[in-house]
């Protein structure tokens, strides 16, 4: 099938989608009715954000279709709570296709009227109202690139206050209540995680605290909303687990961030089935990236497939489809030279299934070892760096062979030390009550996933070192 955008947009002028008209974004309308909206919101039926509340996905599904969302034949939402280990039915949902879909087939189209756009929100209903909060963000050291997410954060809270009067209420009521992100963890949880993912999770927590504190500078939200930490945490998690930008192909993501109801139902995978794009009018499209047989899931990528630590901290799930993980070598003082030869979380990898070690791990480790040796070795460091940059594999491999006893032993010590650290972290996690720290189980799963990878690497390294003896 092909989506008929003209028919789609024409249908938005009538019926249930009248509430999504551009007029609803005007500053004048919002400014003149702030007090009325706040008074109404306190009495309106709002979304129950208690973690035990099931998600009403089926009402949202019907509502979105009535609002002009178009879907391919075979597109189907289903309750995946049992297969994901959720505490009860109605907690987790996924998308699959019940029909064969050829590559580059249209899967979903969501009209721009339904999409929450940070750029449009800031220029429209927040214009002239959010500057004090933005000034506070600057004082707190929040980078400007995060402001777009803050605008979406405010939008979620505004629509929450409107309750059933919000045109987005069916979508809000379909969203998760439980999150296992860094923002949702307790300080003790960070102490049970390896250094990198602990730091990333802590960063998420700090971002949430900054956003929450800046709510006091927002006049158009009720005091009840601004002082409700659990509500703020829920809104923050909704934004950071469901918003994405539009990559223009240059590798630089635009400042505008969007949340696209229905498209936000696609789960993450390394080997994806769908890809998201936007047209010039702001409509969102999902197309298949390959041939997808009936009965298959429809998934997109949330980020770098070889950085499961980022996905864990930001989205709160363990990406077991990730082929590799960062080697966890921390404490190296970054220089431009080290970055040039591979000092990056997404390049210094240990492979999960094979225990293979990427070239960048060996290169960075050798470069740092040569830094600490005698003057002759420092000259060798320069020669090695130039060989890396010029693609001189013969020279590079010759130097690797010369110093292999040092690099392999250093890496072996790191792996053994890290495995010991994981055991200590797990012992620490197991001493706590999961009712008080409900994210402990997924932390233990994460640590076990990393340990399995490191054990395979250890087997390979032990064999290498034994052959040199």
From TrEMBL:
Gene3D superfamilies: set domain protein methyltransferase, domain 1 (3.90.1410.10)
Residue ranges that the Swiss-Prot or TrEMBL entry lists as coiled coil: none
UniProt GO MF annotations: protein-lysine N-methyltransferase activity
Domain SET: 73-303
Superkingdom of origin organism: Eukaryota
PROSITE patterns recorded: SET (PS50280)
Leader sequence residues: 1-19
Keywords from the UniProt entry: Signal
InterPro entries tied to this protein: SET_dom (IPR001214), SET_dom_sf (IPR046341), SETD3_SETD6_MTase (IPR050600)
Database matches in Pfam families: SET (PF00856)
Name listed for the protein in its UniProt record: SET domain-containing protein
Native source organism of the sequence: Pseudo-nitzschia multistriata
